[in-house]
Amino acid sequence: MSELIKTGSHGNNILVIKLSDRGLLRKLSFDKNSYSYLYSDYQGCKWYQNIQDINLFSPYIVELSDFLILDYKLLSAKSCYHLSSINKTYVYLEKIIDHYLTVWEFSKKVPCHGDLTLANILFEDRNPIIIDWEHFNIDGECW
Prior knowledge:
2 helices, alpha+beta, globular, 10 strands, single chain, 5-stranded antiparallel beta sheet, 3-stranded antiparallel beta sheet
């Protein structure tokens, strides 16, 4: 069974599809101008897994003649509604700040997620998992 999750957020031309029967989350684009977002997503996800020595997502990317596909292992983690008041999200915000401080090294420049908000974080037993790396910058931003 497949379910369309999202289309064209942030002005890109990327479709996000949940393929429950395959246990996959698939991002794809038929627009070559949007390929860079999928490549960044792939690179950011690989960096995030590598820095923690984990394999959460098992990302797999394939460029075909007319489109690009990025597959991830479907996670059972939950999201926190990003527009909720701070009274409802402060526990999650504390968790992500602690997580951030353990994952990112403290130096002048560090790799950057690009749009890290609660909308791009899942929680598994209140442990954060950062997703959606489409704006990842390996060259870094100022800490």
